[in-house]
Amino acid sequence: MLSVDKGGLLQPGKLWWNWFGEQYFVPRYTARPTSEEEVCAIVREARRLGLPIRASGAGHSNPAIVPTPGVHVDFDDFNQVVSVDREKLQVTVRPGMRVSALTAFLREQGMSLNNQGDIDRQAIIGALMTGTHGAGKTLPCMSTAIAGARIVTADGELRDLSPADGELFKAFRTSIGMFGLVVSVTIQAVPSYNIYKRSWNADVEDCIGNLHKRLDENRTFWFFWLPLKKSAELYELPGGVVPSTATREHDICHMRTYNAVPVDQPAPELGPGEEFDHSSIIYPNDYIPNFREIEYAVPFGRFEECFAEVRHMFQTKYPDALYPVECRAVKADDTYLSAYAERDGYALSISGPLEEWTWGMLRDADAILDRYDARPHWGKHHFMTPERLERIYPKYDAFKRLRREMDPDGVFLNDHLRMLFA
Question: Where in this chain does the record put each FAD-binding PCMH-type domain (predicted)?
Answer without folding.
Answer: 22-192
